[in-house]
Amino acid sequence: MAYSDKVLDHYENPRNVGTLDKEDPNVGTGLVGAPACGDVMRLQLRITDDGVIEEAKFKTFGCGSAIASSSLVTEWVKGMSVDQAMSISNEDVARELALPPVKIHCSVLAEDAIKAAIEDFRKKREARKAGTAQVQNG
Amino acid sequence: MKLPIYMDNHATTPLDPRVLEAMRPYLEDDFGNAASRNHPFGWKAEAAVEKARKQVAALIGASNKEIVFTSGATESNNLAIKGALEFYRSKGDHVVTVTTEHKAVLDTCKRLERQRAERLEELRWMRLSELQPQPVTAENAAALAIKHDLDNDPVLRRWESMVTAGARVTYLPVKADGLVDLKELEAALTDKTVLVSVMLANNEIGVVQPIAEIGALCRARGVLLHVDAVQGAGRVLFDVEALKVDLASLSGHKLYGPKGVGALYVRRKPRVRIAPQVDGGGHERGMRSGTLNVAGIVGFGKAAELAAAEREAEAARLLKLRQRLRDKLFTALDHVAVNGSLEHRLAGNLNVSFAFVEGEALMMAIKDVAVSSGSACTSASLEPSYVLRALGVDEELAHSSIRFGLGRFNTEEEVDFVADLVIAKVRKLREMSPLYEMAREGIDLKNVQWTAH
Question: Is A51 on the interface with B (CB under 8 A)?
Fold first, then answer.
């Protein structure tokens, strides 16, 4: 099976590989997939207090298409609002990378990773608010 | 050194130039049909085929009359198993094989099981029709079977005991090293067992099965032994007399010969019979009809002759290359493991799992080198290698496996290049792998709650 040029480009020159501090309250971490299935994607987003994604990093265990999908979404989400990022669908990723049907699950994983990272960020913020509220009440 | 480097010699092997030279006349002037008995074109073709038959027979210690040419080993495996089952139907209907066999054996066995299941289903419907007047349909069959207590129906039991269509199949597991447990094999044999089918060497992990012991066991129990010898013949000593093999499948293109030609060895003393699976002009002593692929057969014969003559020296050379490759990889990288027995293994095979790196991604990273992977991403099924799973290799490590298949034309320089490239790319991919990072932080990946998809 031949890979599309875009998959090859992202695979050979992956954008934004790396790790953000997962304890940072402004960092949301999404870890999706499973080693037994052959792909695990970790996407980390640094989100400002007013909800803009200012930094995105990934690490992926998976095939070339999985690596390319995660690399692509890190480029896309940078500068987006959280709501904009939530609206990215796997179909957008699959179309952009011209993924064949057997690789669609890679794009699904990328969408799931964005949602999981934002979810993690929101939970942290909720917890922070709850913590502050408690202090005020006490 | 020329790129790309071919290191996938279990998939196929390049044509040896000496083989091409031997074939050339039969693709040009000597185009005759080996079955044409009345003119020199036919005679010449027939003589060439008979010479090749001797060459192939000599490779496995057989006589020329025991070689049936086929289109390849998939056909040979089908012919051996279906043909023997059909011929010895009055003796029994049971086959014993192994979970790590090639799909040409496993899928043949599955079809035989399905044929038996279909016949049993027919009998149930026939019995139901007999027991009650209303017509039996797909909708009411299950309810009627319960109503008439079909599972305890003595008449149906008696009918079922007479079914000879298809086969019952036992799939033996393998040990962690990939080898068959002889005790389990012995325990699986019944008085209805017609055939045992075990491969000589595995196509993924190169593990060589103890055919001599299996042959002795089968002979003592009066059971036929079929050996898929595609990967092993010409690489390890394979003598059908010494090993007591009754049927053996061979392929031309795994021996530096052409594709589209193979053979089935069928023992003559004591006589082994098979029912033909392709009907027609009665070629190959009635066992396989169809005009012979003369040029292909000539090439296969030459390839067999070369393999026999060069086997020992070549095996020693390949073993050195493999050790070199393994030493380099294992010295430079941590978290690497060989899949399958290293001791009972083809010299040219190295199947390695590089933990935390996915196989297809690694193959993409070393695109100047042709190898294979047990990763699901390289198969249409999205399941990782069934062979590695049968060994008990974790799914994650099956996804991380790479099969290096060294062959006649690989050099030490190529091995060094491949080893250095693989080491560099594994390191690069591990830097991108969340699993490697987690493992280094001391997180046990087995205790992580993954989101399976």
Answer: no
